C-alpha cells in the first residue's frame, strides 16, 4: 500500500461529512469512487483501524469511530506505512515475540471482567470464521484488547503501531486462502490457552501461552517459505 492510497482514503473520510458512528459505504463503491483496488482499500482501512479511526464489525460493515486528527494521525499512519515498506514478515513476528508475551502477562493482572469476556468471545468467533478475511479482523481485535487490558497506555500505543505494521506485512503480503482456516488450525487452541491463563489471572502462564502461540505462527511462516 502506498502513502498516496492511504492519504486518498483519509481525505475522503475527512470530507465525507459522516458523523462518528456512521457506516461507510460498501467497499466496492469506495473502490470505484477512489480509484483503488479492494486490497489497497482494505490495507488502508486496517491502518486507520489500528489508529482508532475505524472499527470493523463482521457482517455489519466498517464504521467511523472518530475523524482523523490531522497532525497526530498523519504522523502515526505515515509511521505505519513507512515501517510496513521496510519490514519483512519475519521481522514483524520477532517484534511481536518481544512485546506481546509481556502484554499478556500484564493483562492477566489488569484485565477487566468485560475485557476478559470480549477476549473469550473473540476466540470463539474465530473458530466460526466464514472467511480468512473475517478471521484476520477477529484476530487483530483479540490481540489489541489484550494489549489494551495490560493497563499500560504507552505499551498499548506501541502495540497499535506494531499491529498496524504486522497486518499489512504479515497478512497482506503472504498468500492466504479465501476460505476460512481449517477446523484444526493451530491458532484456535493456542488462543484458548491464552484466554484460560488470563481468566486464571496467571501472568506467567499467559506470557508462556502467548509466546508459544507466536512461536508456532513463526514456525508455520518459516516452513511455508
Architecture overview:
Helix 5 packs across helix 7 (132-149) and helix 5 packs parallel to helix 9. Strand 1 and strand 2 (61-64) form a beta hairpin. The two termini are 22 Å apart. It contains 10 helices and 2 strands. The protein folds into 2 domains: 3-72, Orthogonal Bundle (Arc Repressor Mutant, subunit A); 88-224, Up-down Bundle (Four Helix Bundle (Hemerythrin (Met), subunit A)). It is 72% helix and 4% strand. Strands 1-2 form a two-stranded antiparallel sheet.
Spans with pLDDT under 50 lasting ≥5 residues?
Answer: none
CATH class descriptor of the largest domain: Mainly Alpha
Radius of gyration: 17 Å
Question: Any idea what the shape is?
Answer: globular
Beta percentage is under 5%
Instruction: Give helix and strand order, one letter per element, not per position.
Output: HHHEEHHHHHHH
Q: Determine the CATH topology of the largest domain.
A: Four Helix Bundle (Hemerythrin (Met), subunit A)
Biggest sheet: strands side by side, in what order?
Answer: 1-2
By secondary-structure content and strand pairing, the structural class works out as: mainly alpha
Helix content: over 70%
Number of helices: 10
How many strand elements? 2
What is the count of distinct domains? 2
Task: Give the biggest sheet.
Answer: 2 strands, antiparallel
N- to C-terminal distance: 22 Å
CATH architecture of the largest domain: Up-down Bundle
Instruction: Name the CATH homologous superfamily of the largest domain.
Output: GntR ligand-binding domain-like
Q: Average pLDDT across residues?
A: 85
